[in-house]
Design a protein that fits this description.
This protein is α+β, with helices and mostly antiparallel strands and 340 residues long. It contains 8 helices and 7 strands; from the N terminus they run H-H-H-H-E-H-E-E-H-E-E-H-H-E-E. Strand 4 and strand 5 form a beta hairpin. Helix 1 packs antiparallel against helix 2, helix 3 runs antiparallel to helix 4 and helix 6 packs antiparallel against helix 8. The longest helix has 55 residues.
Length: 340
């Protein structure tokens, strides 16, 4: 980030120029005064004597006075700007707090009050935007999921040749609505973060297996979980579960019937999904993390959101989604947000 101008440096430079200009003016004044003084006085002191008088009674006192003046000026400037430094530190430490955080205006200097008020107004607008986006996402999800659920129930009562196909299409639409809702919630969280809580990656893994069990069984793919140990991490359990669910769904698609997909927790603050496919190169994984970019094994009804959602979840959590050449797995690394 580009370094901005320092107020202290600006003031220090200004005082230095003022001191230099004052010294020049003083020197000119002394020269003029020396030329105007009476001839007999100049002869009694002499040129050398006058120089000594100027040094002893003018220049030396100025030098003696400038040293404590410079120290006092620096202290006064630092004291005047201390509320700004305290506010910056307070804002920095507030990352991840509940929404509604505002800068305290009581200790701000008068000159900085408009800036502090503008920051609070911006924070208020961000909170409002996040609430509106979350409310909109919830309303849309409700309005779409309810008729989809009713349609699926009605189809279950019918016995026609197209029932299974239409039911699968409706299930795909329902899953798309869920993914769009997750994306909307993540965007709202990014605009106005809320605090993370300690979560156990094992819980997220087991929840993801439950959500994907039916789809895996229909394809003849077994789901398994292996725990190699690891600490709790800071995060949102529903978001991490959604990330693992997307990875497991992708893994089931690339794994042949009769094989298994394994979620491995650890070692350390990591969790990975191992499938029966050929693996994916890191560059390819990065490309597929773009929204609406579909891989070769994407389902017919998919919208290419799976890996982009996982990447977005990890970005919000301060983690990373990784793959390793030659290994048929995708890893979620939470090393930066280990719970303490």
């Amino acid at each position: 980030m580009q370094q901005g101008r320092s107020i202290i440096d600006e003031l220090r430079t200004g005082f230095a120029w003022m001191a230099a200009a004052g010294s020049v003016v003083l020197a000119v004044f002394l020269v003029v005064d020396f030329e105007l003084v009476r001839k007999d006085v100049r002869e009694s002191y002499g040129h050398i004597g006058l120089v000594h008088e100027v040094i002893d009674h003018v220049i030396f006192p100025i030098i003696v006075l400038l040293a404590p003046l410079a120290i006092a000026t620096r202290w006064l400037i630092a004291r005047a700007l201390k509320p700004l430094h305290d506010a910056a530190e307070f804002i920095h430490q507030a990352t991840g707090r509940e929404r509604g955080f505002r800068v305290t205006l009581a200790d701000f200097p008068t000159e900085a009050m408009p800036f502090a008020e503008a920051v609070n107004a911006l924070l208020s607008r961000l909170d409002d935007a996040a609430r509106r986006q979350e409310g909109f996402a919830a309303d849309v999800a409700h309005e779409l999921k309810t008729p989809l659920a009713v349609a699926m129930l009605e189809l279950g009562r019918l016995k026609t040749a197209d029932t299974d196909r239409v039911s699968a299409d409706l299930a795909g639409m329902n899953r798309l609505v869920e993914q769009l809702l997750v994306l909307a919630q993540l965007d709202a969280y990014a605009a106005a973060p809320q605090p993370f809580r300690p979560i156990d990656l094992a819980d997220a893994a087991l929840d993801a297996i439950k959500l994907c069990a039916v789809e895996a069984a229909q394809k003849g793919v077994a789901l398994a979980y292996r725990d190699e140990g690891g600490p709790p991490v800071m995060g949102r359990i529903e978001a991490v579960t959604a990330a693992l669910r997307n990875l497991v769904e992708n893994a089931v698609r690339v794994t042949a019937a009769g094989k298994e997909v394994v979620i491995v927790r650890g070692p350390g603050p990591k969790i990975r999904v191992v499938d029966g496919g050929p693996g994916i190169e890191p560059a390819r994984l990065l490309a597929l993390s773009d929204r609406f970019r579909r891989g070769e094994h994407a389902s017919f009804g998919g919208a290419g959101l799976g890996l982009s959602i996982v990447a977005r979840i990890m970005e919000v959590h301060g983690g990373a989604m990784k793959s390793h050449p030659g290994e048929p797995s995708i890893e979620l690394d939470f090393d930066n947000i280990v719970a303490t």
